[in-house]
Design brief:
Cytochrome Bc1 Complex, Chain D, domain 2; 5-stranded antiparallel β-sheet; elongated
């Protein structure tokens, strides 16, 4: 490797510069970052995740109601009724929070589960406790209507523009075919509302520049000490030896902004994502 290439490689991977240049760049970078943050439109900032979740007070209330009114039939862990595991979110004919509300209020199974008269706070509490997985200190995410969520996924939400599901769609973003089986509702919700906080390192966008000055942008699929594999913007699998790269940059920011949806729509979209369970 000639001296010119060695220098470019060092700058690309170690970020080495002189001390004064580092200070100047840091000051300039901080100013640019501040201006960029101030310039962001409101919808580009993460939403308050708590606005889309049940409160800890509701979960605690629900735990008391469940113990006194539900545990006798469903059991302490919610798994005594055949085909139902309330703690794990396994139901019969129930998906959304509204479904749960209806079954609790009206009963089901031709009288096998009697109707239960609860006040609004009590009803919200028992649903929160179930959604928290029977953990009084857990996170209870609101779950909406999966059919409406599917419409949002393939429509206004724009999710299908990047994500692949069950063999259909682009590969520029992670495949979501089994996302409902490997991610909790809380993690799915966080990905929608604050993608920067939930982004896994392997899914960060990358930008590579070879010594031949070819610029490659895409999604990192794999990386080891000496090589990196990337799915580029044209969905081509590319493999590079790091010694052949002039620079290799990994973005700290997600490729998408926080989703522009209201509380009900976020709950619907989470409900749909939970139905994507692959071949399970």
């Amino acid at each position: 490797m000639d001296r010119k290439r060695t220098s470019r490689y060092a700058r690309g991977f170690s970020g080495w510069t002189g001390e004064s240049e580092v200070m100047n760049r840091a000051k300039f970078g901080a100013s640019v970052m501040l201006l960029a943050m101030l310039a962001l439109p409101p919808l580009a900032r993460p939403q308050a995740v708590g606005d889309h979740q049940y409160t800890s007070e509701a979960i605690e209330l629900g735990s008391r109601i469940y113990t006194s009114q539900c545990a006798l039939c469903h059991g302490p862990q919610g798994a005594l009724v055949d085909g139902i595991d309330l703690r794990l979110g396994i139901f019969r004919g129930v998906a959304s929070d509204e479904d749960l509300r209806r079954v609790i209020a009206e009963g089901s199974g031709e009288g096998q589960m009697p109707a239960t008269a609860l006040g609004e706070n009590e009803m919200e509490g028992i649903i929160a406790y179930i959604r928290a997985g029977f953990d009084p200190e857990g996170v209870a995410v609101r779950i909406g209507d999966a059919a409406r969520g599917e419409e949002l996924f393939y429509g206004r939400g724009g999710c299908a523009d990047c994500h692949r599901v069950n063999g259909e769609g682009p590969r520029t973003a992670p495949d979501l075919s089994d996302i409902g089986a490997i991610r909790t509702p809380a993690v799915l919700q966080l990905n929608l509302l604050d993608p920067a906080a939930a982004l896994m390192p392997i899914n960060r966008a990358v930008r590579l520049v070879t010594f031949d000055e070819e610029v490659v942008s895409g999604r990192r699929l794999n990386e080891d000490t000496h090589t990196v594999q990337v799915l580029d913007s044209a969905e081509r699998l590319r493999s590079f030896a790091k010694a052949e790269l002039g620079s290799f940059e990994i973005s700290r920011e997600p490729s998408k902004p926080p989703i522009d949806m209201n509380e009900e729509e976020v709950a619907d979209l989470v409900a749909f994502l939970l139905t994507l369970r692959g071949a399970l």
